[in-house]
Structures are given as C-alpha cells and as structure tokens.
Amino acid sequence: MLFLSSILYIVSGSFGGCKKGNDKKNACRITASSIASLGSLSNFSYNGNGKLNRISTGSVVTTFDYPTGNTIIAITLDSGRFQSKKIIKVNAAGLATNVRVENNESGTAFVNDSFEYIGNELIRSVSTSFLDDSSRITTFTWFNGNMVTVRSGGTIIESREYFTDKPLRIGDVISFTQFFQGFETVRTKNLVKFTSQGSGLNFTYEFGSDGNISSVKVDAPNGIGGFQDYQYECK
Length: 235
Hints:
Number of domains: 1
Helix content: under 10%
Order of helices and strands: EEEEEEEEEEEEHEEEE
CATH class: Mainly Beta
Low-confidence stretches: 1-25
Structural class: mainly beta
C-alpha cells in the first residue's frame, strides 16, 4: 500500500473533497485514499467519539482501541493473521510519549520509542529493541513552528522545507503519515514542501472548493513519485 514507505507514507488516487459545500467551519475527516497505479484502496472508519478505529487496505486491517484516556492499542492483522501490536501512550495534547511495537503475539520481539517535547515541539526520541541493550537517540530542530532538521549522532539525516503561506491542515504529507500509523509526534505550523530523505522529495498541493487538500503531487529526482488524494466526510 505504501510505495514510499521507507521515506514517507504516500498514497494516490482520485477522490472528491468534502461533502458539504464551502462551509469551512465543518469538521472534516478522511474516509478513504488510494494508489491508482497499484489499484490499492485504504478505508478509514471512526468510533462514536470521532476517533480512528479501523484502517483496511486489502487483506490488511488495523483496529484501534482506547482503554484509557492516554492509551491507544493498535493491532494489525493480514488475512486474520497477527502482524503487529502497538501500545501507544499520549500526553494531554494528544502527542505520543511512548510507542511500543510488538512484532510477535508474545510481545518478546519489540521496538520501543520514547518521545520528549518542549511545549508541543518534539525535541528528542530514544529507540530501543529486544535485539540489544543499546539505544538510538534522535534529535529535532524547529524554526518558526516547523520541524526543519533531524539529527542522529550529531549528523543531519533529514532536512525539511515548508510552504510558509499555507497553514497545516489534514492531508498534509506529514500529518497523513502519522494519521495512518495511529499516533502523532510532529505537529507543524505549515504544509511540508520538501524532505531530503532518499533522493529528495518535493510536494505540491491542490485544494478543493471546500478548502481541503484534494491532491498531493510527489516529485523525486530518481523518477519515484505519485499522487496522494483523499475522500472526506464533513459534518
């Protein structure tokens, strides 16, 4: 489903925008996305509280449970077979503070990531796994409300640029990546324009008459790219 999964979650297809005219006061949420070139469709559903409770992409289904106010449990099955379990802890702002991903049903094969913030800005993450006792530390730099660099061991491993005239909204590449994975750590001020990951990716946004992002075009020097489009439900 994710043909740029090593860089960002990018999906494509062709859907319309919000169902309710031009009233931008309506709250909208993504209900579907697709990759036209792969014939892959993802559907998203929500519980009575408006929280994401199911993602389905072909035979792969992820369900979300909210046992407490600060805990999310996400279980992914492929054709009914266990793939992974995420145990997500969030703070009062809804940002993840700890994510444990278990890749077997006993929970012994795991990766654990903890996240630290100043305000709502992610500044540091620490990753550990069952494979060894060492940890990987990643740090993040922000400018004017946007996360601009990612460092590992003091070396910049990613830089990002933003459309400073376009405020963040649902459908932004970064926010959709986090929506799909079931938790949020980066909440920027503006829409992302460029990431240096891989060979570098440039993003161009198109907007529907309702103001929602209708399409994101992805361009890369090596020819890898595509379109990301959304279907919305608005209330």
